[in-house]
Amino acid sequence: MAEYEACILRLRLAVDMEVQDVSVLGDSDLLVHQIQGATPYLLVYGTEAVIPAEVEISSLRIVTEAGIDDDEWVKARLEQLNLIDEKRLAAVCHGQLYQKRMARAYNKKVHPRKFEVGQQVLKRILPHQIEAKGKFAPNWQGPYVVTRLLSNDALYLADIEGRCIDMAINSDAIKRYYA
User: pTM score, two decimals?
Assistant: First the structure.
């Protein structure tokens, strides 16, 4: 988002300085189109940028603009500028739909886990822990008993003998133990 805002700021500065030829480059034009449904240049100026190759090798857009007189071109340009707000709104809506689609795809694979006090669980051995001793070492340790639930999906555990672990554990690193 910061790159997009910087691009708009620079393009407005170029307009203020009455620059005639501007090149806009992005990291991934496909990503910009996919997320926003429009290029940043279109959202600022209401029309797509004309690249020098289109002027040299006439494209359909250049031929149609060259075939009209100045009054018609001005009217067409004003009409395009009046539609900028609609294009911006459409790009925002497209971005929101894209975010919802990505969230839905992600959440489809997420299975929430609910734990209760007194339930037996296993705790994941994370790679930075001392217990992680190579690829043939077990990935889980326990069983533990859930002693307290916190509101942010964290748990306090105790081992089978009743010794409490002083640190809260995220429920992502816990799975149910079936004896």
Answer: 0.42
